From TrEMBL:
Pfam families (alphabetical): Terminase_6C, Terminase_6N
Record-annotated membrane-spanning stretches: none
UniProt keyword RNA-binding present: no
Name of the protein in its database record: Phage terminase large subunit
Terminase large subunit gp17-like C-terminal domain residues: 332-414
InterPro entries: P-loop_NTPase, Phage_terminase_lsu, Terminase_6C
Database matches in Gene3D superfamilies: 3.30.420.280, P-loop containing nucleotide triphosphate hydrolases (3.40.50.300)
Keyword vocabulary terms for this entry: Viral release from host cell
Keyword Plastid belongs to the record: no
UniProt feature coiled coil, ranges: none
Amino acid sequence: MASKPKFNVSFDFKPFSIKQMQVLSWWMSSAYRDKETIIADGSVRAGKTVVMSLGYVIWSMAEFNGHNFGMAGKTIGSLRRNVIRPLVSMLSASGYSVKDNRSENRLDITKGNKTNFYFLFGGKDESSQDLVQGITTAGFFFDEVVLMPQSFVNQATARASDTGAKFWFNGNPEGPYHWFKQEWIDNLAKHHAIRIHFMMKDNPSLSVGTRERYERMYSGVFYQRYILGQWSVSEGVIYDNFDQDTMVVDLPDNTSFDQDWVSADYGTQNATVFKRWSRYKGVWYNTDEYYYSGRDTSKQKTDSQFREDLEDFYDRNQLDRKHVKMILDPAAASFKAELRQHEFRVVPAKNDVLNGIRAQMSAMNEGKIKWSSKAVNTFNEINSYIWDKKAADKGEDKPVKEHDHAMDADRYFVYTVLSTRTKIGW
C-alpha cells in the first residue's frame, strides 16, 4: 500500500489501523488501481464510515476536477448526521474548503485549484431510484448500503459513467441471503471489487471498555452480525438471551417507583395486552399484566369493554389515567379514540419491529428491564417467539406472527420510552 496521507494536526486524528490505511490508500496501490469497487463491512463501531467517507473524498479530489459525485445514506438526515458532519470537520482540518449548498443537498469541495461537486441522496425505498436519474457521476459512496433497496443502488451505480469511476460501499452485515451479499460480496471478481472486513479491534480510537460494553449489548443473531461481523441467518427463538433467574424479580409491595407507563397491544380476535412498567433505581419492571384473547374465549370484546378493563387495570395499580401515559400501536385507531374520550393519555408506539427487537435485547442484556412473576403470558410467549425461516430464506428478518401479543407490548415500551434514537448508531 502507499504511504499514509498527511493531515493537518489541528484536528484530533487518531492513528489509523492497518485496515483503515488500506481503505484510505487502496486506489493508489499498483495491485488495486484497476479495481472499481471497495466494500467495507463488518462489526459495529469498527471505524468504517469515517475512513470510507474520507478516503472517498481524498480519492476523488486526487483523480478528478470539476466532476459530479454521489453520496447516499438511508435518508438525507442520517447521511448528514453520521457521515457529512464528521467528514466536513476532517476535511476542513486537512486543508479542504467545503461549501454546503443545503437547498440542493450538494457539497462543493475545493483544494488548491480543484473543485468537485458531491450530491447527497437518501435511498430509503424503491421510489428513491427516481432521485438519481439524470445525473452523471465519477463515483458513488453508499453508507449503510444494506438498508437500501437494490433498485436504488442499481440506478446509482448506472449513473457513474465517467472514465475511472469507482464505487465505495459501507455497511454492517444482515442475513446471508440479503441481496447485497449475494450480488456484490459473493461476486467480487465480477464487480472488480476488493473487500475489507472490519472488526471493532480495527478501530484504534475505541477503548477496551467501550468494546466490552458493545459486546454486552448484543446476543444471538445480532451478536453474530454486529460484534463478530458475520452475515448470519436469523433463526430460532428471538429472545434467546432471556434468563428467568436474573430477569424475573418480584419487588416488595411497598416499593416506591419514580415513574410509570402502560404499554398495550390491541387485538380484535387476537389477544389484547396491557403491561404496567414501573421504574425503580434506574431499572424498569413489568409489574402487572392484563391478557385477553377473543379467539381463545370465543367471545370478542368491544372497544368500550376493553376500555373498562383498562380502567380496572389502572385502578388496581393505583395509576392516574390523566398522568400515566399509555403506549398504543398506531394502527389501533378506534381504541385510541375510545380512550381519549375518557381522558387517557395515549402515546403512539414506535413500531419498527426489527429495531425494536434489537433495542429490547440490548435492554435485557444491560439489565434495564425486568419482569415480575405476574407476567405469566409474557413467559408463555417469549420461548415461542421465533424468527420466520421462510422470510430469512428471502433475505428478510421477520418474526413469525404468532405468540407475539405480549412481545409487541414489551417492544412498544422499550423502543418508545427507552430508545432515544430510532436506530442504534454505529
